[in-house]
Specification:
By secondary structure, the chain is mainly alpha-helical. The protein has three domains: 116 residues, no CATH class; 100 residues, no CATH class; 136 residues, no CATH class. Helix content is 55%, strand content 4%. It contains 18 helices and three strands. Strand 1 and strand 2 form a beta hairpin. Helix 5 packs antiparallel against helix 6 and helix 14 packs across helix 15. The radius of gyration is 28 Å and the shape is globular.
Length: 387
Amino acid sequence: MRHFTERRDIVRPGVTRFASAFLTLESILKKKDQLRKMVVHSKWDGLREVSSKKGKAATATMMNPEFWKEVKMCLKVFEPLVKVLCLVDGDVKPSMGFLYGELLKAKREIKQVYGNVESRYKDVMAIIDKKMEGRLNSVLHLSAYLLNPHYSYADASIFDDGTIIEGFISCVETFYHDDDDKQDQAVNVELRKFQNREGSFAKKLARTYQNFDFNPASWWKLNGNETPVLQRMAMRILSLTSSSSGCERNWSVFDLVHTKKRNRLTTARLNSLVFIQFNSKLMSRRQQIKSKKITDVLLSNDVMQAQGFMFDGGDECATVVYEDDDEEEMPGTGIRWTVIGEAMGASEQLELRRSSRIRELYAEEGFDSKEEKFDNEDGLDGMDEGE
């Protein structure tokens, strides 16, 4: 297979099982011609596995036109949902104000894939509605959808939707649960101003809502001064994220730092290490956004940016972090680096040891792996017997 696909794998891992299934299916479709050539090649018939039941089934599947037709249909159906997943999992902006609206958009696109024939798309819609019920159509999601001018100003019928208005009123009652005057002010006075685009909502600068990349919470901060009750509520809701992905990534960094071999770190030092590593990742992400080289959020990274550049040698450690500033350059690599000694507990700048990661940088120097014995020996320094 790798001979025909130019040494590329079919399976593409993602940060979720749903993403992995979609990315792998997409990868299979892109390699359709190569895979079909593979199963008709003379070497294919010479493989022992091909004569088995599974081998014959695989051959028949690759040559079945209906299979490729259904793969293409699956990708068309799930692509709108993957876009929603990218939005939810991303760190670029708060997604609460866009989630419900993008889900409705995804449902419309899926219906178009099936030619707007209800008998063809009703099963898929039933699954989506079941997943949304009680999870993604709460009063918080409905209120965020209503208060986001990107949707409510583009479609005035949103203000006439009974389900959305009822959800908004319920959200107001919860947000201002002990103040009837503010509830009345938000629902009967300020919402009407927002709907009719009165006062500051009518300004030319308020039309930035037409851009999908705008921040609705910032929009309310700039344009909602004449509706302070609704402004406070809108800013709180539209600043929320709709998933715990950010927290999960932070917890993953803790798992990478606090391991079985490095389990005697103090709380302060552990927090400092996580701070360096996690923010290094965020800085790298920000640079990618500025340079428009944003990688697919759903694709899993091989390692965290700082992972693999941590060296523990007894009581002293050093971390190497990429820097944009003019720091010392690692000889022969073109990589600029600095040692973060304070967070690691090191009293002075340490010399880099050639770990497995650094060893690749020196491959051209004819490095002899037999001299690597001290790597394992250093890892045992400072450990008591039985540890």
